[in-house]
Every structure is written in structure tokens, then in C-alpha cells.
Amino acid sequence: MPKPLVSIIIATFNSEHILPKVLDSLVAQSISKNKIEILIIDGGSSDNTVKIAKKYGCKIIKNPKRDPINAKFLGFNAAHGKYLVFTDHDEVLENKRSIELKLKAIEAMPEVCVVVSSGYINPEGYAIINKYINEFGDPFSFFIYRLSKDKEYFYKTMLKRYKRLKENREYAIFDLSGNKCVALFELVAGSTMINAELIKKEFPQTKTDVFSLGQSYAFVLSKYPKLGFTLNDGLIHYSASSFKAYKNKIKWRVKNNIFYKDSMGKAAYLGRENLQRAGTKIKKYIYPFYVFSLLPVLIDTVWLIYSRKNINYFMHFPLSLYTASCIMYYYILKLLKMNPELVGYDGMKLKKI
């Protein structure tokens, strides 16, 4: 049996509600089915996730540590395709030619090793908080990177920050070299396509170090700075269904970065921090002053409302206060040597990576 050209990797855990939409969007792709394989790396789901995956003919791999970081690492090593596409369990491909377009972009120039989608789309009728998440991730990330991942603004931001080498109706190629802005692009999420064959050869540490894979964007794009960007190729992202769920996610991220620097935190901001320029590293210390002095965060809130023409972006203000308060609270706990248990978004205990 010939090897697939593209391996699609999806980390799951109790994902039965959105997974059928994700898999339907993959089955509907224009690329020949014998050229792809879909790997489901499951963390021990107690619902119908695995049953659904089997129904769609996916290959199932068990993830004993349950967290998505380890799942993607397992998928990276188990995949047979020359190219990998990392799609999360709540990301639905909008364009039926998404994978076909990414293949065209990644093969347009030998120096292109990574291709990203056009950005996130808020599902129709979904919570407004989801749109904010899709665009910036969280208030801290907005402050540090100021990179919109919303489909409406992502490409415009790219044009402002990076040199465009080529563009047609299907994709564009950008040159990220020599730019002062941090080139932060998820290689293991967002339906990003990577040349896994080349990455495994050029950066063998990605095969043995789970954290190296998670932060691979920095060293991969530093050596291969030409980035593919597919056009009209959005991702419908079902991230957080409520403010309560999102607040729990923020709290989880803060705890990881403060208490678990050598595990979950290393896979998040702390891992990226060591790969960033000095100016960007300093910004994290400025964040509490940015928030608690009120005026700067209010100015950004007004700017978001005006530029997006959406009053709902007022949420940036209270969410910033909440995020900064979590940071201060957990740093106080750390000073008091009161370490919380390592858990997932849902409160269930995780094994250390």
C-alpha cells in the first residue's frame, strides 16, 4: 500500500460534539482520498469520540498522558505522509480545496516549509467571546504579539508586517526574514501544513523532544523564512462556548506558565519566550502596569471597538483585568509555596510530560 502524501493529525479528548463536523470537512476535501490519512490521537475519551473516528476510517492512537501537546508529538512520529496538517478537534475547514491549496503553496518554492490558513471564523450563532479568542487567543497574547488571526484581519496584518514575494488567486508567499516583529505561527494547530520530511531531517530534535516540536516555528522559520498563506481558506473554530469556559482556560494557561515551567508552561508562552527578542521578553513585566494603570488598556479597548466596528470588543477591558489578576494571584501563591495540581481545562488531572 503506497504511503499517503498528507497526514492529518487531530488530538482528541471527549470531542464527540464537534468532531463529526471536523471529519466531514476533511472527507469533503478535493484531494484524492488515497493521498491522505487521518490520525486521531485520543487521550482516553469516555464519550463516543473513538467510535466516531472509527466510523470515518481514522487511524486511532492512544495518548496515555491525555494532554494535546503529547498527542501531537505522538502523531508527528506516527504519521507516514511527507506533509502533515495539524487540525484541532474544534477546527472545521471552510474550503473544500483547503488541503489542495496548501499543497500548491508548499510546493511553489523549495524554501517554503510551512503553510498557514487564512484565519479563524466564528461559527454562526456561537458565543461572541469565541470571536475574541479566535482573533487574539487571550488579552496577554494581544499585548505581547498584537497579531490578529481573524480571517478578516489576518492577511491585512501579514501585508503590513512582512514582504510579499508572490500572490495569485489561491495563495501568497511571504518572506519573514529580517523583520523586527516576532514571527509567531502555530505549526501544530490551525490546520497548518508543514513539510515533515524536511523538518525531521533538518531538525531531528523534533522527533525526540515534545517541547521542541511545539516551539518549532522559531527555528524552522528562521532557516526557512518563506511562509505560504492560503487565500479564502478559513477555519470555523468552536473554541469556548461561554465566558465561564474561557475564564477557566485563561486561569489554566496562567497556572501552567507560573507553576509548570518544565512541562505545560514550556509548551506555551515560557517555551516561546526563550526564542524571542529581548524587547518582547521585557513586555511580560510591563503587562500588569498596562492593565492596572487602566488608561492604556482602555485606549486599546476603544481602538478595538472602533476598528472592528463591534461594541462587543469592550470585553477586552474586563478580560484584561481578569488575566492580570490571575497572574498576580498565582504569583502570590507561588511565593507562599502553595502549588496547585496540574489539571486540564476540564479540571481533570494530567500526567506531567
What is the highest CATH level, the class of the largest domain? Alpha Beta
Helix content, binned percent: 40-55%
Q: How big a fraction of the residues is strand?
A: 15-25%
> In total, how many domains does the architecture comprise?
2
Assigned CATH superfamily of the largest domain: Spore Coat Polysaccharide Biosynthesis Protein SpsA, Chain A
Evaluate the radius of gyration: 20 Å
- What is the β-strand count? 12
Topology-level CATH name of the largest domain = Spore Coat Polysaccharide Biosynthesis Protein SpsA, Chain A
Structural class: alpha/beta
Keywords for this structure?
9-stranded mixed sheet, 15 helices, Spore Coat Polysaccharide Biosynthesis Protein SpsA, Chain A, 353 residues, 12 strands, alpha/beta, 3-stranded mixed sheet, 2 domains
Overview of the structural elements:
The chain has helices at 19-27, 49-55, 68-78, 98-106, 129-136, 139-145, 151-161, 196-202, 210-214, 216-223, 243-259, 269-273, 278-292, 295-308, 316-335, and strands at residues 6-12, 36-42, 59-62, 83-86, 91-93, 112-116, 119-121, 163-167, 171-175, 192-195, 226-230, 234-237. The chain is of the alpha/beta class and 353 residues long. The chain folds into two domains: 6-237, Spore Coat Polysaccharide Biosynthesis Protein SpsA, Chain A (Alpha-Beta Complex); 243-335, no CATH class. The protein has a nine-stranded mixed beta sheet with strand order 3-2-1-4-10-6-11-9-8, sandwiched between helices. Helix 11 runs parallel beside helix 15 (316-335) and helix 13 crosses helix 15. The model has no long low-confidence stretch (mean pLDDT 89).
